[in-house]
Recover the amino acids of this structure.
């Protein structure tokens, strides 16, 4: 059985790291704030991947974003996926040269459909992550949004997802806008949009606010990785504690922390039963 992955997502906008709730942004702190509260030399033992997204609403400064990305690579040994405003191979190349291991694309999936193929040919299919943001309409139907949630796509979400799955991408990142930043738990209904058999790893995001939410996500056989962007709920040693509880809960995660052994797993915590 393949091991699952715990992913931590950072949202960056014009010099600050952000909290997002249903795609409404609130600045929390700059790079110095992040480094004070998240020691990535230690957090790297608690996560399997780091996703860093430039969600700037106004004109993006990719060079400034690249400098931040370079800073995040210091003492951080987990793979980094970077995205936000990637519309061409040159932009992707800048992010890769700044420390990213993979590139996440979102809006370009529906506008510049050739880009995924170009990136795959240049860097390998495993380097490309397709991100899809999903939000319910007033009648409860899941729809696809892009351009930082400002553009609604009229085509059925299932049809768009099927189209993305035929592209040369390595994995798919499904994000619930309705649950984004709420900490109320993951939206498993977005997984119903997937075909019966998916030949790409699926990352589920949006709504994970505690270790129990993560545990429920990992226990779904359709989910290969769970991502959380909840800064405050996992501040300090929150990610370390969450990972420890996930392993106790029977989730197969890579064992980075040498201070923790499988022999420590004796019982399930009551709150995770």
């Amino acid at each position: 059985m393949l091991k699952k992955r715990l992913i931590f997502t950072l949202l960056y906008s014009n010099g600050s790291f952000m909290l997002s709730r249903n795609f409404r942004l609130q600045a929390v702190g700059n790079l110095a704030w992040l480094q004070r509260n998240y020691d990535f030399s230690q957090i790297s033992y608690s996560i399997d991947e780091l996703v860093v997204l430039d969600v700037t609403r106004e004109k993006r400064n990719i060079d400034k974003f690249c400098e931040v990305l370079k800073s995040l690579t210091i003492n951080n040994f987990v793979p980094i996926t970077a995205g936000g405003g990637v519309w061409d191979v040159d932009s992707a190349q800048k992010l890769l040269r700044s420390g990213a291991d993979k590139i996440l694309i979102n809006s370009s999936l529906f506008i510049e459909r050739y880009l995924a193929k170009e990136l795959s040919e240049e860097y390998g299919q495993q380097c490309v992550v397709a991100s899809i943001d999903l939000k319910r309409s007033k009648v409860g139907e899941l729809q696809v949004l892009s351009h930082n949630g400002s553009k609604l796509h009229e085509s059925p979400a299932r049809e768009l997802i099927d189209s993305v799955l035929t592209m040369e991408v390595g994995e798919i990142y499904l994000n619930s806008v309705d649950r984004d930043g709420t900490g109320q738990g993951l939206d498993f209904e977005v997984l119903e949009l997937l075909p019966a058999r998916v030949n790409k790893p699926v990352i589920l995001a949006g709504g994970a606010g505690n270790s129990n939410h993560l545990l429920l996500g990992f226990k779904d056989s359709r989910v290969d990785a769970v991502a959380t962007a909840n800064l405050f709920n996992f501040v300090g040693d929150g990610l370390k504690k969450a990972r420890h509880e996930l392993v106790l809960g029977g989730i197969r995660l890579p064992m980075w922390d040498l201070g923790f052994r499988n022999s420590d797993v004796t019982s399930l915590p009551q709150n995770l039963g």
User: Anything to note?
Assistant: The chain has one domain: 5-272. The first helix runs from residue 31 to 37.
